TrEMBL record:
Protein name: Probable membrane transporter protein
Residues making up the signal peptide according to the UniProt record: none
Organism: Pseudoalteromonas lipolytica
Family assignment from sequence similarity: Belongs to the 4-toluene sulfonate uptake permease (TSUP) (TC 2.A.102) family.
Bilayer-crossing regions: 12-36, 42-64, 85-104, 110-127, 139-159, 202-223, 235-256
Entry keywords, A to Z: Cell membrane, Membrane, Transmembrane, Transmembrane helix, Transport
Membrane topology: Multi-pass membrane protein
Domain of life from the UniProt record: Bacteria
Amino acid sequence: MELVSWDFFSGGLLSPISTIILIILAGFTSMVSAAFGAGGGLMLLVIMASMMPMSVVIPVHGLVQLGSNANRFLYTFKHIDGAMFLYFSLGGIFGALVASTIVTAIPLELMKIVVAAFVLYLLWGVTPKIRETSTLWRILAGLWTSFISMFVGASGPLVGSCLYVNNYNKLQFTATFSSCMTVQHTLKAILYGAVGFAFWQWLPLVMSMIMSGAIGTWLGLKLLHRISSDKFKQIFRLVLTLLSLQLAWQGIYFVFA
């Protein structure tokens, strides 16, 4: 006799094997984000989209990433760029408010192409004329990325590229990135809760994935300490570039398919 039914985790919408895979991958992708700055969230989103009903992927993924980034935020709290966090959060609130008015009307696949192009520009193009440490840049970064996050799910590459131009060291980057993503995913949870998404049905799976993610974060931060700052920036730029190209391909494929 089973002590806990597998239906407990997802209301019968996922098989036991899918449930186990998602819990394990939550830990692995959290380790990737902690060690290399970003990328784990998008990896997890792609996998979840292939295993779960699309109507629940973005809100459930947002809750899992909220837990993952909050763990990383607490681990690295003393390295956070407080000004970036404050102004990014302010912009994020405005971005979420704008998104709440059109959350069901945006063509998601076109958004993926826009996001990918923007990330690649920040990584490889001309540095934006707005000074990267200015209040305006930080507020706009929070507004734009939080707005996009409500529709494409994993905005990590976009947020990461906005922080990349600040030339942080590896711990400053990880801490500030995690704090900004925690705010963003909190806003997302509030928005989807307000429009009626039933989070309670998925809470057992979400909590299991968050606990797995906490272990992955701990392992990833151990790895981060072993990587030089220059190596970290090289790997981070490569990871973001590959993920952005993948995101662009998804958008292009669905638009022209």
